[in-house]
Protein: Gem-associated protein 2
Amino acid sequence: MTEKCIIDVKSKEALEKDTLLFPCFQISNDVQLKDVPSTGEEYLLAVINERRNCQMVTKCKIDCSKFAQNQSEFVKEIPHPKAPDHLKPTIEWQNIQVADFSDIRLYISRLLDKRSDWPQIRKLKVNPVNDVWINFFDNHEPTLSCILGMNYKILDIGLEYLIESLNDIEPGSTIPYNTGQWIYAILACTRQPLLPNTVSILRNLARRCAEVRSHINPEEENSMELVTPFNIFICLVSRYFGQFDLAD
Structure:
């Protein structure tokens, strides 16, 4: 097979053409500009003609002093308390949690691909009212047939309620087992790529876990057991879902 050299990169001609302004497509001189292009070359000619009427660089004029005066409040991050050194999870432990979580999500993704062959999945309609969610979480287990029927919005609303329920945890206590199960299940079924609202909810989960965790007395005999659920959720949000600034 004979090789053909389109452009010799060492030639002077190639160096002169190595510029952003060099046209990628050559248009024949016979092509006429039309109001409604009917061919590819006519369309390119119309685009080139419109480009000639535009400035090479467009600048946006912003009065920074006026902007600062109208800015009522800048975004402030909620404090993220760090775990005491002897309660802080090791990197090895966090890697294990992420690996196990990844396996679960892979299994769930395969089930979602076969949704038509899985009739147990049912669609749920839950109103975003606290008493409704309390009744729902208290009377249902986070089984796959239950949770995979939820859409993005319902998952986000449910997770928001669960995060809010963490405020009811007494100082020195940990996450109730049923609540922890539901949080983990919702995280496992959270779709990617993440929506901006979902990212915000996940970050709130990590911050709230860190805040409640900070009230656990590290001198307690079972302190490591108490902080484990908080460590898991902070680990997953930060290291699996990419919110690394919240990692332990």
